[in-house]
Amino acid sequence: xxxxxxNRALAGIFVVLAVSVxxxxxxxxxxxxxxxxxVWPGVLSGxxxxxxxxxxxxxxxxxxxxxSAPAGWSGKLWGRTLCSTDSTKFTCVTGDCGSxxxxxxxxxxxxxxxxxxxTLDGSGGMDFYDVSLVDGYxxxxxxxxxxxxxxxxxxxxxxxxxLNGACPADLRVNGGVACKSACxxxxxxxxxxFGEYGNPSTCKPSAYSQFxxxxxxxxxxxxxxxATSTFTCAGGDTTYTITFCPSTxxxxxxxxxxxxxxxxxxxNGTMAYTGGGQASAATxxxxxxxxxxxxxxLLVLAxxxx
Length: 306
Prior knowledge:
By secondary structure, this protein is of the alpha+beta class. Helix content is 21%, strand content 25%. Keywords: Disulfide bond, Signal.
C-alpha cells in the first residue's frame, strides 16, 4: 500500500501547489500608453501588500506592459509626464514620486495626478477599484476589467477627457500641464474634508469638485464621492487594463445619456467597453508565469515518482 500513500501524498502536493501558485499571483494589470507622448507609470503598493514586478517604468506611445498582482493586493497606479534625467536624478513635472529614479520604490504620486486605485480580493471576495481626481488630474485614464465573473458593479471607469486646457485658472499648473484639486490649491478643511468637515454630512461637493464630476461622472471628484465612483468585480480570473489617453473609440453607446465630453457612455445604466484588443500581441501570447512555474514543478515531481 506504500504506492497508494505516495500517490495520495503526490495528489496533496499538487493541490497545495495549485492553490498556492495560483493564489500567489492571482491577477494582472496591463498598462497601455495611448498618448502621443511618453508616459512613465508609477506604482505604489498599500500597507501590507507586496511590491509588484516594477514600481516605475517608461512607456513610449503605443507600448504596453503587464504586471502580475498577488492575491489581496491593494495599491495605486498613475502616469508621470514630462520626465527627464539630469546628472544626478530622474524627475517628472507631473506625478513625480520623489525617488529620483524611474522606479518609485515606495514613493507616492505628488499631486496633481490621476490615480487608478485597487483593492483585490477584498470584502466578500470582491475586487474594488476606482479612478480618483481627489488629488487632482494630469492625464486621461481608463480602467477596464477583462474576463470578469458575474457579480458586483463591474464596469469600466475613468476620466477620458483632457481637463488641463479647461482647468480653472486658480487650479492650473505651469500653464496647463496638470490641474490641482481645490484641497491642494487652497488647503482648507472645507475642500480637504478634515476637522469639522471630516464626514459626508458636512463635506459637500464644491464648485471645483463639480468641475471634475461634470467632465468625468464616474471618477472620484472629492473625498466622499463613493456612491457613483467605486466599482466592484467578483473575484476569480478578472484582470484589468489601465489605458492612458484612451481613444474615444474605446467606448461606444446607443444611449442618449452620453452627452458630455469625456463621459463614459451608459447602456442600461452601465458602461460598455469595446477596447479589449489593446494589449500587445506579445503580452497576449505569453502564458501567465504561475502556470509556467506549476508545469516545471509537475515535471520534477513526475520524474521523482517514475
